[in-house]
Amino acid sequence: MTTVFCVAVQQDELRTEMRRKSLLILIYHHLLGQGYVSAAVALDQETNGGVRRFEVCDNIDLEMVLMEYESYHYVKFQKYPKLIRRTERLLKPLSGFSGMSGEMRELAAIISRDIYLHSPNVRWEDIIGLEDAKRLVKEAVVYPIKYPQLFTGILSPWKGLLLYGPPGTGKTLLAKAVATECKTTFFNISASSIVSKWRGDSEKLVRVLFELARYHAPSTIFLDELESVMSQRGTSMGGEHEGSRRMKTELLVQMDGLAKSEDLVFVLAASNLPWELDHAMLRRLEKRIIVSLPSSPARQAMISHWLPPLSSTGGVELRTELDYETLGMEGYSGSDIRLVCKEAAMRPVRKIFDALESHQDGDTDVPAIQLETVTTADFLEVITHTKPSARNLMDKYTAWEREYESV
Description:
Blueprint: H1 2-33, H2 37-46, H3 62-77, H4 102-112, H5 131-146, E1 160-164, H6 171-181, E2 185-189, H7 191-194, H8 201-215, E3 219-223, H9 242-259, E4 265-271, H10 279-284, E5 287-290, H11 296-306, E6 310-313, E7 316-321, H12 334-350, H13 353-358, E8 374-375, H14 376-385, H15 394-404
Parallel strand pairs: 1-4, 1-5, 2-3, 3-4, 7-8
Antiparallel strand pairs: 6-7
Helix pairs in contact: 1-2, 4-8, 8-9, 11-12, 12-14
């Protein structure tokens, strides 16, 4: 059984490799056919002559393949597919990235996939509360670019900032606001971006990440779930893997390089478990600010945002009569509050399903949809069945803040 499985996997990998090779050959001949000779030659050189030695079979070309896909999409969805969209920003080509071997070019292409080319469309004013965090992020990223004459000498820009706190409090939302509002190249990095199963590739990916950030400067590197890549060294049961140690060391070395340079590269990190972070990394993250659970005014603002007195979805009106000041919800994170609001809005919707299901397809008498008003009593009932996700952890965050806070 194992042998059969291995053979099947190998065959699937061969088919995938052949498909990618065929696509390059189709592109090469399409470029030649359209008169883009220089581009075709460049493609052939990058593949070491791997595409020039093949011809496209009769009655096959890239345009025909695309037309057949459009026809298939129209038959299935009754509309043609949208194939392209205008990019919101253009990156410098990797060909200008000096000292790049073939292997490093491949790694650079992998990291480049995590660059935000399109805005997440999150503004500072969209984030309710978190004023201290917004101020510090602006000081670190926005103002040094806007007022460079102020940030010299002892006032040189911060190079690293850690956002820590319970899940769902807005750490990633702050990062998206940076990507939207700041005119920097934004690298959205997670463990899957820089951890590789191949020996030596993880530290190479880290090195390429920081070199690319310098190349595309001004840049922001967002390290989400930092504890997954920078946990304390030497504390793993049974000893830490050598590759993991090398990757962490490389990340620390690159952070040191930023601190000693004038490059406009900033590291923004987020962690739900700051007590698991390596102390050497904490030293390199000069600013450490807690993103705490929302205050009472912030909670009220969130509830009124998600459940206003009148909203309309799909032509159906949803009305609410809520006494926002009595709803409380102390200990709930922003994502918890959104979940409660969604569940409260769902309660009147559930009551109309029977009427909708009894309506037969083809009947002209479609029942009018009128939802009941969501009341304070409904909301409080939902709260009793939806518990906060991180209330019991706040004491631990507060204790860690007292020891390591740096604002």
